Amino acid sequence: MSDIDGKVLAPEIQPGELKVAGVSKSYGAGQIHKDVVRECNFTIERGKLTVMVGPSGCGKSTLIRLLAGFEQPTTGTIELDGKSVTGPSRELLVLFQESALFPWMTTWNNILYGPRARGELNGETLEFAEFLLAKVGLQEFRDKYPGQLSGGMQRRAELARAMINNPRVMILDEPFRGLDAMTKELMWEYYSGLYEENQRTNFFVTTDIDEAVFLADRLLVMSNVPTQVRAVIEVDLPRPRRLADIVENDRANDIKKQALSILHAEAMRSFSRGSKAAADFVEAYLKRERSN
Amino acid sequence: MAAGGARRINARVVTHGLVSILIFLVLWEVGSRSKVWLAWDAFGPLRDLIAAFGLKTHYLPWIGAVPAPSAVFKAWMGVIDQAGYWQSWYMSFQRVLGGFVAAMLIGIPYGLMLAVSRTAHGINFPVFESLRPIPPLAWVPASIIFWPTQELAIMFITFLGAFYTIVINVVGGAKSIDGRFFQAAQSMGASKWDIFKRIVLPGTLPSIMVGSAVGMGITWEVVVAAEMISGGGSQMGGSGGGLGFFIWNSYVGGSYEQIVVGMISIGIAGYVSSELLRSLGTYVTPWLRVR
Question: A289 φ, ψ to 5°?
Answer without folding.
Answer: -60, -45
